[in-house]
Amino acid sequence: MDKFKRTLIAIPLALLLSLSSLADDWEPLLNGNSFDGWKQLGGEAKFTIKNGEVTGTSVAGTPNSFMTTKRDYTDFVLEFEVWVQDGLNSGVQFRSMSKPDFKDGRVHGYQFELDTAERAWTAGIYDEANRGWLYPVDYNEPARSLFKHEQWNTARIECVGNEVQTFLNGKQVSHLIDEKAISGFIGLQVHSISGSELAGYKVRWRNLRINTKSPKLSPPEGIYVRNIAPNTLSDSEKRQGWSFLFDGKKTNAWKSSKSGNAFSADGWTVGDGALTINHGDGGGDIITKKTFGSFELDFEFRLTKGANSGVKYFVANHAKPGADSPRYLGLEYQVLDDDVHPDAKQGVVGNRTCASLYDLIPRYRKVHNRTVPLNIGDWNHGRLVSLPDGTIQHWLNGFKVVEYERGSNIYDALVARSKYADIENFGLSEKGHILLQDHNDEVSYRSIKIREL
Amino acid sequence: MDKFKRTLIAIPLALLLSLSSLADDWEPLLNGNSFDGWKQLGGEAKFTIKNGEVTGTSVAGTPNSFMTTKRDYTDFVLEFEVWVQDGLNSGVQFRSMSKPDFKDGRVHGYQFELDTAERAWTAGIYDEANRGWLYPVDYNEPARSLFKHEQWNTARIECVGNEVQTFLNGKQVSHLIDEKAISGFIGLQVHSISGSELAGYKVRWRNLRINTKSPKLSPPEGIYVRNIAPNTLSDSEKRQGWSFLFDGKKTNAWKSSKSGNAFSADGWTVGDGALTINHGDGGGDIITKKTFGSFELDFEFRLTKGANSGVKYFVANHAKPGADSPRYLGLEYQVLDDDVHPDAKQGVVGNRTCASLYDLIPRYRKVHNRTVPLNIGDWNHGRLVSLPDGTIQHWLNGFKVVEYERGSNIYDALVARSKYADIENFGLSEKGHILLQDHNDEVSYRSIKIREL
Q1: Which residues of A touch B418 (CB under 8 A)?
Q2: What pLDDT is attached to residue B135?
């Protein structure tokens, strides 16, 4: 083989493909030494450009600043390289907007996060000045180590229809399905700084290029898909094995826990895409017909003021043999208005607050030093993970707030001094039902999905 | 630079060195197609040799079988490659013996473990037919993933003086200091099998070679050193920052918890290399003068029948301001004769048994499906690890039996329903004393060592 052939073979196939599509469908977003086609919005942080490389410099006492494209983009693949000075927070806006009728023109919309802090959420998706965190990178723990500090990182953002994927240094970080496709500008952010310590800190971008002619989603890498569109299952989720327990309409996955028979509409209402417990009707709990061992459960819940409910799992019938009626008990992801319902103050150290493992383990109130949000009167996102090795996780609005090992020595010690102390084998069946608790308060559920692991 | 020079540089320096020392000091242990200089001991498993490659084949109904060198070796470095069929357990004996006056000639001594099971302790050190596990690989968790299933693995055993190091596929696995250097044979083991399912399974060795002329220990990789020689600190431990809290003689690291003054000999005896609580003398607890935050604590303890003591850590004075006497409380590694002392049955789910976190978390009775040994009347090995991230581990005789996160939501929940419920900030001080509990029972301690992390 001659030298020329060897050289050719040494170029990875992926690079060749990307070079060929560059020739056809990619265009640079910034060139040379000019911000032609761009404008600055928000604060007064400094942006400079030289040979296509942008430097953003933080300035004390100014809000978040953005260098943004004048034109909007809907479906595209965006690639760039980025270098961030340690201590700075930054980001790249996409499908973003600035409108006089929304917070006085404040820049809002998707942000590809750039995070040099210990939290390490770079390439997570944040909805700037709007809904907050859509894809916190705790959903994809291994991706938290992808970011290279004070080195050039390669980034990729794919937006096709209502689906968004982000990549950092060649690995997928986020996978988001939103309610609908959004059109908007692209913008480079320099975050506001508190005090003046970080003044003069720099973030740099280069080789920004965009493909709007043939935008395609890369084959997903199987990471958790956060689907915000209520009561929908995306193709990506279906491929991962997700299915509905409640899709906004059908209740056929459920039965009454009282009779053990079919789902009874007594006390429960299906409407407006939600399954709602009627206040004071006493319809009783409902349980899934199927039982589950290792699974991921995704759901949204909406509490009225002072309301109480719960999502139980590894639910088994603990009635004595020959008893008249079943007695379904299990581990409970508490669903509660912590501020108003008195049970939040019962138990110990907050182990009856919302998203806690009821009467056993309190949820963390803060994660990464940020208060975990809980919205009364609006939808919250709950997530339950039961791994084959016995690890159980409770998630609330994107934050992992409880983690424990079912059946461990610590689990046994907790149960032995709880209200379940006298229940033999409590929470330890190999598989169990999922149960929605009717506490006679108005609480709604929707987008209840499960996949077995 | 010409092509020849480039080729030379491409050969790693280590390989060059090893090639050069091969020429001088290494000799093959097996050659060709003969077991000349070797003999089979123990069971009737089949050993064959072809072109220097040995195949051991398991046979039903026969005990552990060994193909052993006729001569003994004391100081040496041994290298070999090994391939093990999944399902089989095997090993390589070194410094081993077969004597008529020890268990009727049963082969005993150090074994380099070959472990295809989930436990994955390959290259750990087991004392065959004698003291059992000396270096379980749980001491060195990352090394549990080094073994390559049904592929050739490279192994290295270094014995110099009373120090032993093992390596697997280029990484250190074990580091053992024994009481004295031992001389003995080298032997290839085929383990006995239960039933006949594994009959015919194979283990293969090749490229066995030994260096007895210039045996040297490789620079240690900083893994945990298990030092069995009582009240000694090896150079390797000193380099890691270990120091004595009790070396068999000196008590100057300690003071009385009652007076807050110097160590009082009341109730405590120093003798025979041990620090012993006198039965019924009421001398009171002793605490270290220094306090510790992140540390590893290593100790040995010997319980008399029915005895009770404890090793407490993160010990702080919880007396009310102005109180007459101090009140030292902390997290307790329980030290107890579980079978005889009644406290083992108190608390819940065994959370007052030996090596448990007293009244909070029971120790695991089994690890890797093996019962954790506890020897009454003989020395046991205790180990406490307090990592900078808050993780605490209790070890008993080589097994990790308790692990928890100090100050976590689970920790708070456990304490809130324990005998410490009313102690403010229990166990949560940044640093704390180490305390040895005087429970008026005869319990001895020795080899108490600590290093700060």
Answers
A1: 417
A2: 97
Give the minimum alpha-carbon distance from A347 to chain B in angstroms, rounded to a whole number: 9
* Domain B231-452, CATH: 2.60.120.560
> Which of B408, B417, B418, B419 has the most A C-beta neighbours within 10 Å, making it the best mutation to test the interface with A?
B417
Q: Does B235 touch chain A (CB under 8 A)?
A: no
Do the chains contact at A364 and B417, CB–CB below 8 Å?
no
Each domain of chain A, given as residue ranges in start order, spans: 25-211, 231-452
**pTM for the full model?**
0.89
B265 has a chain A CB within 8 A of its CB: no
Question: Given an 8 Å threshold on Cβ–Cβ distance, is B413 in contact with A363?
Answer: no
CATH code assigned to A25-211: 2.60.120.560
Q: pLDDT at position A32, please?
A: 87
User: How high is the ipTM of this complex?
Assistant: 0.87
pLDDT digits (tens, 9 = 90+) for B146-157: 999 999 999 999
Q: What is the mean pLDDT of residues B288-310?
A: 97
pLDDT digits (tens, 9 = 90+) for B56-104: 999 999 999 999 999 999 999 999 999 999 999 999 999 999 999 999 9
Q: Percentage of chain B surpassing pLDDT 90?
A: 86
Q: What is the pLDDT of residue A1?
A: 46
SS3 per-residue string spanning chain B = CCHHHHHHHHCCHHHHHHHHHHHHHEEECCCCCCCCCEEEEECCCEEEEECCEEEEECCCCCCCEEEEECCCECCEEEEEEEEECCCCEEEEEEEEECCCCCHHHCCEEEEEEEECCCCCCCCCEEEECCCEEEECHHHHHHHHHCCCCCCCEEEEEEEECCEEEEEECCEEEEEEECCCCCCEEEEEEECCCCCCCCCCCEEEEEEEEEECCCCCCCCCCCCCCEECCCCCCCHHHHHHCCEEEECCCCCCCEEECCCCCECCCCCEEEECCEEEECCCCCCCCEEECCCECCEEEEEEEEECCCCEEEEEEEEEECCCCCCCCCCEEEEEEEEECCCCCHHHHCCCCCCCCCCCECCCECCCCEECCEECCCCCCCEEEEEEEECCCCEEEEEECCEEEEEEECCCHHHHHHHHCCCCCCCCCCCCCCCEEEEECCCCCCEEEEEEEEEEC
